[in-house]
Amino acid sequence: MTVRVQREDFDLGAELAALRAGRTDLGALVSFTGLVRDTGALAAMELEHYPGMTEKALAAIEAEAAARWSLQASLVIHRFGPLVPGEQIMMVATASAHREAAFAAAEFLMDYLKSRAPFWKKETGAAGSRWVAARAADEAALER
Amino acid sequence: MTVRVQREDFDLGAELAALRAGRTDLGALVSFTGLVRDTGALAAMELEHYPGMTEKALAAIEAEAAARWSLQASLVIHRFGPLVPGEQIMMVATASAHREAAFAAAEFLMDYLKSRAPFWKKETGAAGSRWVAARAADEAALER
Amino acid sequence: MTTVRLRYFAWLRERVGEPSETVETAAGTVAELVDELMRREERYALAFADLAAVRVAVDEELADLTAPLAGVREVAFFPPMTGG
Amino acid sequence: MTTVRLRYFAWLRERVGEPSETVETAAGTVAELVDELMRREERYALAFADLAAVRVAVDEELADLTAPLAGVREVAFFPPMTGG
Prior knowledge:
The complex is a heterotetramer, with 2 copies of chain A and 2 copies of chain C.
Chain A: E1 2-6, H1 12-20, E2 28-35, E3 42-49, H2 53-68, E4 73-79, E5 81-83, E6 88-96, H3 99-116, E7 119-125, E8 128-131, H4 136-140
Parallel strand pairs in A: 1-4
Antiparallel strand pairs in A: 2-6, 3-5, 3-7, 4-6, 7-8
Helix pairs in contact in A: 2-3
Chain C: E1 2-8, H1 10-16, E2 20-25, H2 30-40, H3 42-47, E3 55-58, E4 61-63, E5 74-78
Parallel strand pairs in C: 1-5
Antiparallel strand pairs in C: 1-2, 3-4, 3-5
Protein backbone atom coordinates (compact mmCIF):
# COMPACT_ATOMS: atom_id res chain seq x y z
CA MET A 1 0.00 0.00 0.00
CA THR A 2 2.02 2.91 -1.30
CA VAL A 3 1.18 6.40 -2.56
CA ARG A 4 3.59 8.68 -4.38
CA VAL A 5 2.97 12.21 -5.68
CA GLN A 6 5.83 13.40 -7.84
CA ARG A 7 6.88 15.72 -10.64
CA GLU A 8 9.13 13.20 -12.41
CA ASP A 9 8.00 10.34 -14.65
CA PHE A 10 7.79 6.76 -13.36
CA ASP A 11 8.84 3.41 -14.84
CA LEU A 12 5.60 1.40 -15.12
CA GLY A 13 7.40 -1.90 -15.76
CA ALA A 14 9.80 -1.43 -12.85
CA GLU A 15 6.94 -0.50 -10.50
CA LEU A 16 4.93 -3.60 -11.46
CA ALA A 17 8.01 -5.83 -11.19
CA ALA A 18 8.76 -4.44 -7.72
CA LEU A 19 5.17 -5.04 -6.60
CA ARG A 20 5.41 -8.80 -7.21
CA ALA A 21 9.14 -9.32 -6.58
CA GLY A 22 9.87 -12.31 -4.35
CA ARG A 23 6.19 -13.11 -3.82
CA THR A 24 4.27 -16.29 -4.59
CA ASP A 25 0.95 -15.32 -2.98
CA LEU A 26 -0.33 -13.18 -5.88
CA GLY A 27 -2.61 -14.59 -8.56
CA ALA A 28 -3.66 -11.41 -10.31
CA LEU A 29 -1.96 -8.09 -10.97
CA VAL A 30 -3.93 -5.25 -12.56
CA SER A 31 -2.51 -1.91 -13.64
CA PHE A 32 -4.05 1.25 -15.00
CA THR A 33 -1.97 3.99 -16.58
CA GLY A 34 -3.40 7.38 -17.46
CA LEU A 35 -1.76 9.05 -20.45
CA VAL A 36 -1.87 12.58 -21.89
CA ARG A 37 -4.09 12.16 -24.92
CA ASP A 38 -3.88 14.59 -27.80
CA THR A 39 -7.49 15.23 -28.78
CA GLY A 40 -6.55 17.49 -31.68
CA ALA A 41 -4.23 20.35 -31.07
CA LEU A 42 -2.95 19.74 -27.55
CA ALA A 43 0.52 21.19 -27.09
CA ALA A 44 0.96 20.80 -23.35
CA MET A 45 -0.81 20.06 -20.10
CA GLU A 46 -0.20 21.53 -16.67
CA LEU A 47 -1.29 19.46 -13.71
CA GLU A 48 -1.91 21.49 -10.56
CA HIS A 49 -2.44 19.85 -7.19
CA TYR A 50 -2.91 20.64 -3.51
CA PRO A 51 0.27 19.53 -1.75
CA GLY A 52 -0.51 17.97 1.60
CA MET A 53 -4.12 17.19 0.83
CA THR A 54 -3.20 15.17 -2.27
CA GLU A 55 -1.18 12.58 -0.37
CA LYS A 56 -3.83 12.34 2.37
CA ALA A 57 -6.66 11.94 -0.15
CA LEU A 58 -4.84 9.24 -2.13
CA ALA A 59 -3.89 7.34 1.03
CA ALA A 60 -7.52 7.48 2.21
CA ILE A 61 -8.79 6.19 -1.16
CA GLU A 62 -6.24 3.37 -1.10
CA ALA A 63 -7.18 2.45 2.49
CA GLU A 64 -10.84 2.33 1.46
CA ALA A 65 -10.00 -0.04 -1.43
CA ALA A 66 -7.99 -2.25 0.93
CA ALA A 67 -10.96 -2.37 3.32
CA ARG A 68 -13.39 -3.37 0.56
CA TRP A 69 -11.31 -5.99 -1.26
CA SER A 70 -8.75 -8.57 -0.32
CA LEU A 71 -5.62 -6.94 -1.73
CA GLN A 72 -2.10 -8.26 -1.26
CA ALA A 73 -0.56 -5.04 -2.58
CA SER A 74 -1.47 -1.75 -4.18
CA LEU A 75 0.28 1.30 -5.54
CA VAL A 76 -0.83 4.75 -6.63
CA ILE A 77 1.56 7.19 -8.36
CA HIS A 78 0.31 10.55 -9.58
CA ARG A 79 2.41 13.21 -11.26
CA PHE A 80 2.01 16.99 -11.23
CA GLY A 81 3.58 19.80 -13.21
CA PRO A 82 4.00 20.19 -16.99
CA LEU A 83 3.29 17.23 -19.28
CA VAL A 84 3.20 16.75 -23.05
CA PRO A 85 1.00 14.40 -25.16
CA GLY A 86 1.95 10.74 -24.80
CA GLU A 87 3.39 11.14 -21.31
CA GLN A 88 2.27 9.09 -18.33
CA ILE A 89 0.08 11.08 -15.91
CA MET A 90 -0.50 8.48 -13.22
CA MET A 91 -0.84 4.80 -12.46
CA VAL A 92 -2.61 2.50 -10.05
CA ALA A 93 -1.76 -1.15 -9.52
CA THR A 94 -3.59 -3.76 -7.47
CA ALA A 95 -2.55 -7.32 -6.65
CA SER A 96 -4.83 -10.01 -5.27
CA ALA A 97 -5.33 -13.77 -5.23
CA HIS A 98 -8.09 -13.55 -7.85
CA ARG A 99 -8.75 -11.36 -10.85
CA GLU A 100 -12.19 -10.12 -9.74
CA ALA A 101 -10.82 -8.34 -6.65
CA ALA A 102 -7.83 -6.91 -8.51
CA PHE A 103 -9.99 -5.49 -11.31
CA ALA A 104 -12.71 -4.17 -8.99
CA ALA A 105 -10.21 -2.48 -6.68
CA ALA A 106 -8.32 -0.85 -9.56
CA GLU A 107 -11.57 0.54 -11.01
CA PHE A 108 -12.65 1.73 -7.58
CA LEU A 109 -9.31 3.51 -7.08
CA MET A 110 -9.70 5.24 -10.45
CA ASP A 111 -13.34 6.24 -9.86
CA TYR A 112 -12.55 7.74 -6.46
CA LEU A 113 -9.28 9.30 -7.46
CA LYS A 114 -10.90 11.10 -10.41
CA SER A 115 -13.35 12.92 -8.15
CA ARG A 116 -11.67 13.00 -4.75
CA ALA A 117 -7.97 13.59 -5.31
CA PRO A 118 -7.16 17.33 -5.65
CA PHE A 119 -5.66 17.52 -9.14
CA TRP A 120 -6.63 19.93 -11.91
CA LYS A 121 -5.60 19.72 -15.54
CA LYS A 122 -5.03 22.78 -17.71
CA GLU A 123 -4.56 22.15 -21.41
CA THR A 124 -2.74 24.48 -23.77
CA GLY A 125 -3.44 24.17 -27.48
CA ALA A 126 -3.68 26.22 -30.64
CA ALA A 127 -6.77 28.02 -29.27
CA GLY A 128 -5.14 28.96 -25.98
CA SER A 129 -5.37 27.50 -22.49
CA ARG A 130 -8.38 26.03 -20.71
CA TRP A 131 -9.06 24.16 -17.50
CA VAL A 132 -10.33 20.67 -18.23
CA ALA A 133 -13.94 20.30 -17.10
CA ALA A 134 -14.79 17.35 -14.87
CA ARG A 135 -16.86 14.77 -16.75
CA ALA A 136 -20.30 14.36 -15.18
CA ALA A 137 -19.68 10.61 -15.52
CA ASP A 138 -16.66 10.90 -13.22
CA GLU A 139 -18.49 12.56 -10.35
CA ALA A 140 -21.43 10.18 -10.94
CA ALA A 141 -19.15 7.12 -10.84
CA LEU A 142 -18.88 7.57 -7.07
CA GLU A 143 -22.55 6.73 -6.72
CA ARG A 144 -22.04 3.23 -8.14
CA MET B 1 -4.16 -6.37 -31.80
CA THR B 2 -1.57 -9.07 -31.16
CA VAL B 3 -1.71 -12.60 -29.76
CA ARG B 4 1.33 -14.61 -28.71
CA VAL B 5 1.43 -18.16 -27.33
CA GLN B 6 4.88 -19.03 -26.06
CA ARG B 7 6.88 -21.20 -23.70
CA GLU B 8 9.28 -18.44 -22.58
CA ASP B 9 8.54 -15.68 -20.08
CA PHE B 10 7.62 -12.16 -21.20
CA ASP B 11 8.71 -8.70 -20.03
CA LEU B 12 5.50 -7.02 -18.85
CA GLY B 13 7.07 -3.57 -18.68
CA ALA B 14 8.61 -3.82 -22.15
CA GLU B 15 5.31 -5.05 -23.64
CA LEU B 16 3.36 -2.15 -22.10
CA ALA B 17 6.01 0.35 -23.18
CA ALA B 18 5.91 -1.01 -26.75
CA LEU B 19 2.11 -0.74 -26.82
CA ARG B 20 2.15 3.01 -26.26
CA ALA B 21 5.49 3.88 -27.88
CA GLY B 22 5.29 6.91 -30.17
CA ARG B 23 1.55 7.33 -29.68
CA THR B 24 -0.39 10.32 -28.36
CA ASP B 25 -3.91 9.00 -29.01
CA LEU B 26 -4.14 6.80 -25.89
CA GLY B 27 -5.72 8.02 -22.68
CA ALA B 28 -5.93 4.76 -20.74
CA LEU B 29 -3.79 1.64 -20.64
CA VAL B 30 -4.97 -1.36 -18.59
CA SER B 31 -2.99 -4.53 -18.00
CA PHE B 32 -3.79 -7.81 -16.31
CA THR B 33 -1.09 -10.30 -15.39
CA GLY B 34 -1.89 -13.82 -14.20
CA LEU B 35 0.67 -15.28 -11.78
CA VAL B 36 1.31 -18.78 -10.44
CA ARG B 37 -0.02 -18.52 -6.90
CA ASP B 38 1.22 -20.90 -4.22
CA THR B 39 -1.92 -21.86 -2.29
CA GLY B 40 -0.01 -23.96 0.22
CA ALA B 41 2.37 -26.60 -1.05
CA LEU B 42 2.54 -25.93 -4.75
CA ALA B 43 5.87 -27.03 -6.20
CA ALA B 44 5.21 -26.66 -9.90
CA MET B 45 2.55 -26.14 -12.53
CA GLU B 46 2.35 -27.57 -16.02
CA LEU B 47 0.28 -25.67 -18.54
CA GLU B 48 -0.97 -27.80 -21.41
CA HIS B 49 -2.58 -26.27 -24.49
CA TYR B 50 -3.96 -27.15 -27.91
CA PRO B 51 -1.49 -25.76 -30.47
CA GLY B 52 -3.30 -24.34 -33.45
CA MET B 53 -6.63 -23.90 -31.73
CA THR B 54 -5.10 -21.75 -28.96
CA GLU B 55 -3.95 -19.02 -31.33
CA LYS B 56 -7.26 -19.06 -33.22
CA ALA B 57 -9.32 -18.90 -30.01
CA LEU B 58 -7.31 -16.01 -28.56
CA ALA B 59 -7.44 -14.07 -31.84
CA ALA B 60 -11.23 -14.58 -31.97
CA ILE B 61 -11.64 -13.37 -28.38
CA GLU B 62 -9.49 -10.31 -29.10
CA ALA B 63 -11.48 -9.55 -32.28
CA GLU B 64 -14.70 -9.78 -30.27
CA ALA B 65 -13.33 -7.30 -27.70
CA ALA B 66 -12.27 -4.92 -30.49
CA ALA B 67 -15.78 -5.14 -31.95
CA ARG B 68 -17.44 -4.34 -28.62
CA TRP B 69 -15.21 -1.49 -27.42
CA SER B 70 -13.29 1.31 -29.00
CA LEU B 71 -9.75 0.02 -28.51
CA GLN B 72 -6.63 1.67 -29.91
CA ALA B 73 -4.48 -1.37 -29.13
CA SER B 74 -4.59 -4.72 -27.37
CA LEU B 75 -2.24 -7.56 -26.60
CA VAL B 76 -2.66 -11.10 -25.28
CA ILE B 77 0.32 -13.25 -24.32
CA HIS B 78 -0.20 -16.72 -22.83
CA ARG B 79 2.54 -19.13 -21.84
CA PHE B 80 2.50 -22.93 -21.81
CA GLY B 81 4.83 -25.54 -20.37
CA PRO B 82 6.30 -25.83 -16.85
CA LEU B 83 5.96 -22.93 -14.42
CA VAL B 84 6.87 -22.39 -10.77
CA PRO B 85 5.13 -20.25 -8.10
CA GLY B 86 5.57 -16.54 -8.65
CA GLU B 87 6.03 -16.83 -12.41
CA GLN B 88 3.94 -14.94 -14.94
CA ILE B 89 1.38 -17.17 -16.71
CA MET B 90 -0.18 -14.68 -19.09
CA MET B 91 -1.08 -11.05 -19.68
CA VAL B 92 -3.65 -8.96 -21.47
CA ALA B 93 -3.34 -5.26 -22.17
CA THR B 94 -5.90 -2.87 -23.60
CA ALA B 95 -5.47 0.76 -24.63
CA SER B 96 -8.29 3.19 -25.28
CA ALA B 97 -9.16 6.87 -25.15
CA HIS B 98 -11.06 6.42 -21.87
CA ARG B 99 -10.65 4.21 -18.84
CA GLU B 100 -14.11 2.64 -18.97
CA ALA B 101 -13.48 0.97 -22.34
CA ALA B 102 -9.97 -0.14 -21.40
CA PHE B 103 -11.14 -1.73 -18.13
CA ALA B 104 -14.24 -3.34 -19.63
CA ALA B 105 -12.32 -4.81 -22.56
CA ALA B 106 -9.57 -6.21 -20.32
CA GLU B 107 -12.14 -7.88 -18.07
CA PHE B 108 -14.00 -9.22 -21.08
CA LEU B 109 -10.77 -10.68 -22.49
CA MET B 110 -10.05 -12.39 -19.18
CA ASP B 111 -13.60 -13.75 -18.76
CA TYR B 112 -13.64 -15.22 -22.24
CA LEU B 113 -10.08 -16.43 -22.23
CA LYS B 114 -10.63 -18.33 -18.96
CA SER B 115 -13.42 -20.42 -20.47
CA ARG B 116 -12.76 -20.40 -24.22
CA ALA B 117 -8.99 -20.61 -24.70
CA PRO B 118 -7.76 -24.24 -24.65
CA PHE B 119 -5.34 -24.23 -21.70
CA TRP B 120 -5.29 -26.70 -18.81
CA LYS B 121 -3.32 -26.34 -15.59
CA LYS B 122 -1.87 -29.29 -13.71
CA GLU B 123 -0.47 -28.57 -10.27
CA THR B 124 2.16 -30.68 -8.54
CA GLY B 125 2.49 -30.39 -4.78
CA ALA B 126 3.34 -32.42 -1.70
CA ALA B 127 0.18 -34.52 -2.17
CA GLY B 128 0.92 -35.34 -5.80
CA SER B 129 -0.43 -33.94 -9.07
CA ARG B 130 -3.93 -32.79 -9.94
CA TRP B 131 -5.64 -31.05 -12.81
CA VAL B 132 -7.01 -27.69 -11.71
CA ALA B 133 -10.82 -27.70 -11.82
CA ALA B 134 -12.53 -24.87 -13.67
CA ARG B 135 -14.25 -22.49 -11.28
CA ALA B 136 -18.00 -22.42 -11.82
CA ALA B 137 -17.67 -18.63 -11.62
CA ASP B 138 -15.39 -18.66 -14.66
CA GLU B 139 -17.77 -20.51 -16.94
CA ALA B 140 -20.65 -18.44 -15.54
CA ALA B 141 -18.79 -15.17 -16.22
CA LEU B 142 -19.52 -15.64 -19.93
CA GLU B 143 -23.23 -15.18 -19.23
CA ARG B 144 -22.68 -11.63 -17.96
CA MET C 1 -16.86 -44.15 -43.42
CA THR C 2 -15.03 -40.92 -42.44
CA THR C 3 -11.40 -40.65 -41.37
CA VAL C 4 -11.10 -38.34 -38.37
CA ARG C 5 -8.14 -37.34 -36.26
CA LEU C 6 -8.96 -37.37 -32.54
CA ARG C 7 -7.07 -35.33 -29.95
CA TYR C 8 -7.25 -35.57 -26.18
CA PHE C 9 -6.05 -33.05 -23.62
CA ALA C 10 -5.45 -32.92 -19.85
CA TRP C 11 -7.07 -35.76 -17.88
CA LEU C 12 -8.92 -37.01 -20.97
CA ARG C 13 -5.52 -37.56 -22.63
CA GLU C 14 -4.28 -39.35 -19.51
CA ARG C 15 -7.35 -41.64 -19.33
CA VAL C 16 -7.36 -42.47 -23.03
CA GLY C 17 -3.62 -43.02 -22.81
CA GLU C 18 -2.55 -41.14 -25.92
CA PRO C 19 -2.64 -37.55 -27.16
CA SER C 20 -4.09 -38.34 -30.57
CA GLU C 21 -5.17 -41.10 -32.93
CA THR C 22 -6.84 -41.47 -36.31
CA VAL C 23 -10.11 -43.42 -36.52
CA GLU C 24 -12.42 -44.62 -39.26
CA THR C 25 -16.01 -44.07 -38.24
CA ALA C 26 -19.54 -44.23 -39.60
CA ALA C 27 -20.81 -41.97 -36.79
CA GLY C 28 -22.86 -39.00 -37.94
CA THR C 29 -22.23 -36.75 -34.95
CA VAL C 30 -19.63 -36.27 -32.22
CA ALA C 31 -22.01 -37.88 -29.73
CA GLU C 32 -22.30 -41.01 -31.89
CA LEU C 33 -18.51 -41.11 -32.21
CA VAL C 34 -18.19 -40.95 -28.41
CA ASP C 35 -20.68 -43.85 -28.07
CA GLU C 36 -18.64 -45.86 -30.54
CA LEU C 37 -15.40 -45.20 -28.64
CA MET C 38 -16.98 -46.02 -25.25
CA ARG C 39 -18.14 -49.39 -26.57
CA ARG C 40 -14.74 -50.12 -28.08
CA GLU C 41 -12.54 -50.14 -24.97
CA GLU C 42 -12.76 -49.67 -21.21
CA ARG C 43 -10.34 -46.69 -21.20
CA TYR C 44 -12.72 -44.71 -23.44
CA ALA C 45 -15.69 -45.67 -21.28
CA LEU C 46 -13.77 -44.27 -18.31
CA ALA C 47 -12.61 -41.12 -20.06
CA PHE C 48 -16.12 -40.24 -21.25
CA ALA C 49 -18.02 -41.49 -18.16
CA ASP C 50 -18.98 -37.94 -17.11
CA LEU C 51 -19.91 -36.22 -20.35
CA ALA C 52 -20.94 -33.04 -18.49
CA ALA C 53 -17.23 -32.58 -17.74
CA VAL C 54 -16.16 -32.99 -21.38
CA ARG C 55 -15.76 -30.12 -23.82
CA VAL C 56 -15.47 -30.60 -27.58
CA ALA C 57 -13.74 -28.76 -30.42
CA VAL C 58 -14.39 -29.59 -34.07
CA ASP C 59 -11.65 -28.48 -36.48
CA GLU C 60 -10.24 -26.22 -33.75
CA GLU C 61 -13.54 -24.47 -32.96
CA LEU C 62 -15.57 -25.05 -29.77
CA ALA C 63 -18.59 -27.21 -30.59
CA ASP C 64 -21.32 -29.34 -29.02
CA LEU C 65 -21.68 -33.10 -28.86
CA THR C 66 -24.44 -32.71 -31.45
CA ALA C 67 -22.00 -31.36 -34.07
CA PRO C 68 -22.10 -33.36 -37.34
CA LEU C 69 -18.95 -35.18 -38.49
CA ALA C 70 -19.42 -34.76 -42.24
CA GLY C 71 -16.32 -33.13 -43.73
CA VAL C 72 -14.62 -32.85 -40.32
CA ARG C 73 -10.87 -33.49 -40.13
CA GLU C 74 -10.21 -33.19 -36.39
CA VAL C 75 -12.21 -33.62 -33.17
CA ALA C 76 -10.70 -32.73 -29.79
CA PHE C 77 -11.93 -33.73 -26.32
CA PHE C 78 -10.91 -31.97 -23.13
CA PRO C 79 -12.13 -30.84 -19.70
CA PRO C 80 -13.35 -27.26 -19.03
CA MET C 81 -10.51 -24.87 -19.78
CA THR C 82 -8.43 -23.35 -17.00
CA GLY C 83 -6.18 -20.80 -18.65
CA GLY C 84 -5.63 -17.22 -17.57
CA MET D 1 -12.72 36.37 15.23
CA THR D 2 -10.95 33.37 13.72
CA THR D 3 -7.74 33.46 11.69
CA VAL D 4 -8.03 31.16 8.69
CA ARG D 5 -5.69 30.45 5.83
CA LEU D 6 -7.47 30.38 2.49
CA ARG D 7 -6.17 28.51 -0.56
CA TYR D 8 -7.40 28.67 -4.13
CA PHE D 9 -6.70 26.27 -6.97
CA ALA D 10 -7.14 26.14 -10.75
CA TRP D 11 -9.52 28.78 -12.16
CA LEU D 12 -10.55 29.87 -8.67
CA ARG D 13 -6.92 30.77 -8.00
CA GLU D 14 -6.77 32.66 -11.31
CA ARG D 15 -9.98 34.60 -10.61
CA VAL D 16 -9.07 35.48 -7.04
CA GLY D 17 -5.61 36.39 -8.26
CA GLU D 18 -3.54 34.69 -5.58
CA PRO D 19 -2.91 31.12 -4.41
CA SER D 20 -3.47 31.81 -0.71
CA GLU D 21 -4.13 34.45 1.88
CA THR D 22 -4.85 34.69 5.59
CA VAL D 23 -8.10 36.30 6.73
CA GLU D 24 -9.70 37.30 10.01
CA THR D 25 -13.35 36.37 10.01
CA ALA D 26 -16.36 36.21 12.29
CA ALA D 27 -18.12 33.78 9.89
CA GLY D 28 -19.49 30.64 11.51
CA THR D 29 -19.46 28.45 8.42
CA VAL D 30 -17.68 28.18 5.08
CA ALA D 31 -20.82 29.51 3.36
CA GLU D 32 -20.80 32.63 5.58
CA LEU D 33 -17.10 33.13 4.84
CA VAL D 34 -17.82 32.94 1.08
CA ASP D 35 -20.58 35.57 1.49
CA GLU D 36 -18.15 37.81 3.34
CA LEU D 37 -15.51 37.46 0.61
CA MET D 38 -18.02 38.07 -2.20
CA ARG D 39 -19.11 41.32 -0.57
CA ARG D 40 -15.52 42.42 -0.02
CA GLU D 41 -14.27 42.59 -3.63
CA GLU D 42 -15.44 42.08 -7.19
CA ARG D 43 -12.84 39.38 -7.91
CA TYR D 44 -14.30 37.17 -5.13
CA ALA D 45 -17.83 37.80 -6.40
CA LEU D 46 -16.65 36.60 -9.78
CA ALA D 47 -14.76 33.57 -8.46
CA PHE D 48 -17.70 32.37 -6.38
CA ALA D 49 -20.49 33.39 -8.81
CA ASP D 50 -21.34 29.74 -9.63
CA LEU D 51 -21.18 27.98 -6.28
CA ALA D 52 -22.34 24.68 -7.82
CA ALA D 53 -18.96 24.57 -9.57
CA VAL D 54 -16.98 25.15 -6.35
CA ARG D 55 -15.64 22.36 -4.16
CA VAL D 56 -14.37 22.91 -0.62
CA ALA D 57 -11.76 21.31 1.62
CA VAL D 58 -11.46 22.10 5.31
CA ASP D 59 -8.08 21.30 6.85
CA GLU D 60 -7.24 19.16 3.79
CA GLU D 61 -10.45 17.08 3.91
CA LEU D 62 -13.32 17.42 1.43
CA ALA D 63 -16.21 19.26 3.08
CA ASP D 64 -19.47 21.08 2.35
CA LEU D 65 -20.25 24.79 2.36
CA THR D 66 -22.14 24.14 5.59
CA ALA D 67 -18.95 23.07 7.42
CA PRO D 68 -18.35 25.10 10.64
CA LEU D 69 -15.21 27.24 10.89
CA ALA D 70 -14.58 26.81 14.63
CA GLY D 71 -11.07 25.51 15.17
CA VAL D 72 -10.33 25.39 11.45
CA ARG D 73 -6.87 26.40 10.23
CA GLU D 74 -7.21 26.11 6.45
CA VAL D 75 -10.03 26.32 3.93
CA ALA D 76 -9.44 25.54 0.24
CA PHE D 77 -11.65 26.37 -2.74
CA PHE D 78 -11.36 24.70 -6.13
CA PRO D 79 -13.35 23.39 -9.11
CA PRO D 80 -14.35 19.72 -9.48
CA MET D 81 -11.19 17.62 -9.57
CA THR D 82 -9.82 16.28 -12.84
CA GLY D 83 -6.96 13.99 -11.89
CA GLY D 84 -6.38 10.48 -13.11
